[in-house]
Amino acid sequence: MAITINGNGTIGGISAGGLPDGTVTRDELAAAAKGSILQIAQDIDDAETSTSSTTFVDSGLILASFPNPIQSTSKVYATINLLFSESYSGSWAQPHYFTLFQGTDVADGANIGDATRGMGGGNAVSNAVDSYNKYDMQNLTASLLHTPTNTNPYYRLFYRTLASNRSVFIGSAAEISVNYDVGRTIVTIMEVAQ
Questions:
Q1: What does the alpha-carbon distance between residue 103 and residue 154 come to, in Å, rounded to a whole number?
Q2: DSSP element (H, E) containing 186
Q3: What is the pTM of this model?
Q4: How many Å apart are CA 151 and CA 70, to the nearest integer?
Q5: Which CATH number fits domain 36-192: 2.30.30.240, 3.40.630.30, 2.60.120.1340, 3.40.220.10?
Q6: How far is 41 from 22, CA to CA, in rounded Å?
Q7: What is the pLDDT of residues 9-22, one digit of tens each?
């Protein structure tokens, strides 16, 4: 059957498999499909860390990046999943905040979340008037769609606490014992075509 270009802009005479290999690539199709996921990367860490800093500091747990440079028009959908706890201080519980900083392989870059609240936050206990609260842990999941500042973005997990009289722990209960080390801090990044 002959290939024809019809007056209404359609092409006739092409059957499934009728184009030579390599004529239309997967990348070309994905790039044209807005909202499609072009690549996914994930970083998982089972270590524990803590801080009493009231400004965002690098957890040292996560350095997530894509296997290939992203398209200059793409956005990145980033998710955080972690367990956290807080130390006992004899007063009511307080919020702790978590976020991702997007930079390069050698520079932290900038917070992709809210300047104060990051991408998400919470407290690990309902109160802290009982010293047994140091065994409590809370799950946090946060996500954000953002526009990266370069085509080879790197993501680092940052966190902070509200007041320095209490520490926040990631990957473990505040109780110092391997029995409470739960790890599983996970950051997933997805390139989204625009």
A1: 5
A2: strand 185-192
A3: 0.82
A4: 5
A5: 2.60.120.1340
A6: 26
A7: 677 776 666 666 66
